[in-house]
Amino acid sequence: MTPDIYNDKRFGINHKDISPNALSIISKLHKSGFKAYIVGGGIRDMIKGLHPKDFDIVTDCEPEEIRRIFRNSRIIGRRFKLVHIAFPDEVLETTTFRSGGTNASESIEVNDKGRIVRDNHWGTQEEDVMRRDLTINSIYYDPFSHEVIDYTNGIKDLKDRKIKFIGNSSERILEDPVRILRAIRFAAKLNFTIDKEIADGIKEHKHQLLEMPSARLYEEILKLFMSGHAENSYKQLSSHGVFDVLFPHYQDRDGLFHKFFLNAFKETDQRLESGKKLNVGFIYAILLWPKVFVDSEISEQINFKKFYRSIAGVVRKQQIITSVPKKFSSFIKDVWMNQVRFNRVGKKSLNFTKNLRFRAAYDFLLLRGKIEPDLKFTIDWWTEFKTANYDKKIRLLNTYKKKNARRYNS
Ligand code: ATP
Ligand code: MG
User: Fold this and answer.
1) How would residue 117 be classed by pLDDT, with cut points 50, 70 and 90?
2) Residue 39, phi then psi, degrees to nearest 5
3) 343 within domain boundaries
4) Which residue in 51, 93, 297, 363 is a FRET match for 313, CA 20 to 30 A apart?
5) Domain count of the chain?
């Protein structure tokens, strides 16, 4: 295998774009006589002119030896052993070249479904390339020799904006079905097109995702929806039929929820863009809302106990698929429970606006308003109420009943 080698100048890459910690690890490994490169998102994103989220390092140095060279490091993982090297401001992942991959499947342990159960056989760089998922993720960069090394036409696919697996798509998906979500995520993030072969593979094997550990799927959900491309992720997941696999608990009515998701995720991306924080609980409240909405009619007369039981069931069922950490599940339920409080206007409404979770519930109400035109009166009233001073609040409360009755009579 002869790779294409480019000088980093060609892509306008500069050491100042690279994490100094990554540079220091690579330099130290070189000095100890090892090869070391930046691989994956770090180099992919720099070539695309984006700011990488992190820098993954790959080397021919084995984990125990890396551990010895870097005092601030520890070995993690069983299925994939790698080393975390800790700095005050970040933790960097350093992996050792592996020999597992499409042309060397004897060296990885797979189960009877073709699934990788262990891959800790160290190999050469040529072998390491083949076990990576996408062509655009298998570019290596040595910042000191300034060489960008491409074995799989990854640079061409970056230029052509293509998502392609290395090797046979179906096999690569069966080895690790989470790669379906990775392909979708990178397509969403970079606005790339998913190769037809991958699309077919996804269609055929998407249900295999349900056999993946819920914690891994949870990690992917976070990356899909909390990295600034939630709307695109949703579009990709839904057009490839994967959204319904991950969130199977509802039937969309006339594309109503499709509209809800598009709106909600567009706002999610805008929030992040404007520097605001995102809350995992809020994302899950959005993702699971259709089921809650269809199951329970949110109204003044709602049976709270029944409602609570129903929403707890929604969260519990989802937990089995993508896991929902406990610390977020109470937030999710609160966002939904609090929707009822917008219909029950009274003295308690004064305290509600002071509640820490009012803001989230109110933002959620606004999202609902986009597909529930009947909410206009409620939204307008609460929008005025929440910013009013005490006297005005009392006045608004006193006139609420009359106004509310009037809208039904007119
Ligand atoms: P991100 O910007 O999200 O960090 P990334 O491409 O760096 O994107 P990582 O999850 O950090 O993704 O993984 C680093 C590299 O390891 C990938 O680029 C890819 O080469 C390889 N890799 C990660 N997960 C898999 C997988 N499930 N199958 C094959 N290769 C993988
Ligand atoms: Mg990475």
Assistant:
1) low
2) -140, 160
3) yes
4) 363
5) 2
